[in-house]
Design a protein that fits this description.
2 domains, 211 residues, 9 helices, Serine Threonine Protein Phosphatase 5, Tetratricopeptide repeat, alpha+beta
Length: 211
């Protein structure tokens, strides 16, 4: 009876870990590269959702390793903004659609007096988070937020002032959902249940096991 529980824990671990398997769709890669070039040139009117979805299917990484984020947070807390800026810029060269990296870049640039760059990263951060929310409320499977990895869920919830207290997986009509029970810290800890469509990271997990 222990084996199913072990496999379940392994599946959750892999869903929360950056995966590079089962990717490299040439069309998605080309589309991502084109949009990324436009964005880096200052075009903030790109389709941020398409950018994220294309990244998930491309050869590029879409999420930073948590072990790389922790030192950056420590540098910010220690007010070593120049060092934080150098390291976050290096990470952004590899992983551009990780919203938390843009938040760190926004803080580091702001504190270093780089107003224009700070505003750019702030705009990208908003674009990425807004593209997760779209016009949805995340209150049911039919209204779920679409994410490309589990890290996006936690980043989105954190910026929405939500603290996760319970997590479970659900299925409906061939789709997979992460169901997060949260406390809304901006509203006296009111309990809120938030639904995320995790078809993309789930398919990547299946690809890993079936290769």
């Amino acid at each position: 009876m222990k084996r199913p529980r072990l496999l379940w824990k392994l599946a959750i671990l892999l869903l929360c870990t950056p995966l590079a398997h089962g990717k490299d769709n040439p069309a998605a890669t080309a589309s991502y590269e084109k949009a990324l070039q436009q964005l880096k040139s200052g075009d903030l009117k790109i389709d941020f959702k398409a950018l994220r979805i294309d990244c998930a299917a491309s050869k590029y990484e879409c999420e930073a390793d948590p072990d790389q984020i922790k030192p950056l947070s420590s540098l910010l807390n220690s007010k070593k903004f120049d060092q934080a800026l150098k390291k976050v810029n290096q990470l952004l060269e590899k992983v551009f659609v990780d919203a938390e990296l843009h938040y760190i870049a926004f803080i580091a640039n702001s504190e270093s007096g780089n107003k224009e760059k700070a505003e750019f990263h702030k705009a990208v951060l908003r674009g990425l988070l807004d593209s997760v929310q779209e016009n949805k409320h995340g209150q049911s499977e039919d209204d779920a937020f679409v994410v490309i990895n589990v890290r996006e869920e936690y980043t989105f919830l954190r910026f929405s002032h939500m603290q996760v207290t319970k997590q479970s997986l659900g299925h409906k009509e061939g789709h997979t959902y992460d169901i997060m029970v949260c406390q809304d810290t901006s509203n006296k800890g009111r309990e809120v249940t938030v639904y995320f469509n995790v078809d993309i990271p789930t398919q990547r997990l299946i690809d890993v096991f079936t290769k």
